[in-house]
Amino acid sequence: MVELNGRCLCGAVTWHYNGPRGRNLVCHCESCQRATSAPFAAFVGLDPNNLTWSGKINHYESSPKTWRGFCPACGSRLYFKSAKWPGEIHLHSSTLDDRAAYQPDQEVVCEERIGWLDHLPDIPKHNSFGASPEPKD
Ligand SMILES: [Zn+2]
Ligand SMILES: [Zn+2]
C-alpha cells in the first residue's frame, strides 16, 4: 500500500491516492511523446477506485477508448487511462508532490524511444539554465 498526493502546475487540480502500488512505466511511444510534447512519459500506475480528484479536468481521446486528462487552466498532463486496462490509471509522475519518490519499474515501447536520450550522460550538466549562448559564426 502506498499514499501519494499530487497536483498540476497551477494547483487547480489536485489528487490523493491511498491504495495498492501499481506498475510504474516509462513509456516511449510516439503518442505519449506528442501528447506531452516531451521525449517520453513517466507514469505512476494506480488503482482508480482508490484515487480521488479535486478540480476540473478535461480529457482528450487520443485513440479509441484511451483518454488523456489535463488541467484546462494550465495544460498540465494528469493521466492516461484506457479501456484495455480498466483496473489501472496512469498518472504522470511529475504531478507527484514528492517527485523524487518516483521509481520507474520498466521502460515500454522502446522501439519508439528517441535516440538522443542515449547521449544525455555525455553532455555538459548545469544546475541553472547554463551560460549565455555564444554567438555562432
Ligand atoms: Zn492546472
Ligand atoms: Zn505511451
TrEMBL record:
It holds the Pfam family GFA. Residues 4-103 form the CENP-V/GFA domain. Keywords: Lyase, Metal-binding, Zinc. The keyword DNA repair does not apply. Signal peptide: none annotated. Coiled coil: none annotated. The keyword Transmembrane helix does not apply. It comes from the Bacteria. InterPro entries: CENP-V/GFA, Mss4-like_sf. One of its GO terms (molecular function) is carbon-sulfur lyase activity. PROSITE patterns: CENP_V_GFA (PS51891). Belongs to the Gfa family. This is GFA family protein. The lineage of its organism: Bacteria, Pseudomonadati, Pseudomonadota, Alphaproteobacteria, Rhodobacterales.
